[in-house]
Amino acid sequence: MFSEEELKRYNRQMMMEGWGEETQKKLKETTVFIAGAGGLGSPVSIYLTVAGVGNIRICDFDSPDWTNLNRQILHDHTRIGTNKAVSAKMTLERLNPSVNITAFTEKITEDTVDELVGDADLIVDCMDNFPTRYVLNRAAIRNGIPLVFGSIWGMDGMVSFIQSPETPCLRCIYPDAPPSETFPVVGTTPGVIGSLQALEVIKYITGIGENLKGKLLVWNGASNQFKTFRIPKDPDCDHCG
Description:
Helix content is about 35%, strand content about 20%. By secondary structure, the protein is α/β, with parallel strands linked by helices. The chain has one domain (about 5-230): NAD(P)-binding Rossmann-like Domain (Rossmann fold, 3-Layer(aba) Sandwich). α4 packs parallel to α5 (about 85-95) and α4 (about 40-50) crosses α9 (about 190-205). It is globular and about 50 Å long.
């Protein structure tokens, strides 16, 4: 199941209680769909790749520009003009050649989302706009796939683990989409939130730890404080109600 190099690569995480080769095998056999290869998609995809998640489907129709480079660490100045998903694949395959990386350059819409997600076991929402987030939310509900939500602004961020019908869905948390706008962000913020999203994925796959089901974790980077809020389901939600 594992090469000698893989066993060495994953040695430190397999030392954890309850992990070992059988748990590492679960990671290798899992497929994760990452929506977005930008600020959040960078740490999410990097940490899932180096952890040994066997199949990563990463999707982004955009290409990096200079304003992205303070936080989108999948890319550098030599990749400006290259599609972000393609650039991500180049970076991730260098980090761990034993992981299967599939890049999708299409835009996520109601017409494309099911085919793009494919046979994924989880969806990670690394988008920066709510219309697309709602498309992913509906796809997750429709196909019975957990969705890991993350959002950032400046030095602040939020994370939740959504698994409908067990938990509230994204529409329950955000009944109305916030206005679309260019927002400020320092690169460490998606680093923190994206790492937490990746951890939520790893906890779900391995069964080690507790996911943020029915909870919204809010991080204030300026004061470095975390708060967790319970989120009720909306019985009238037009996505999951």
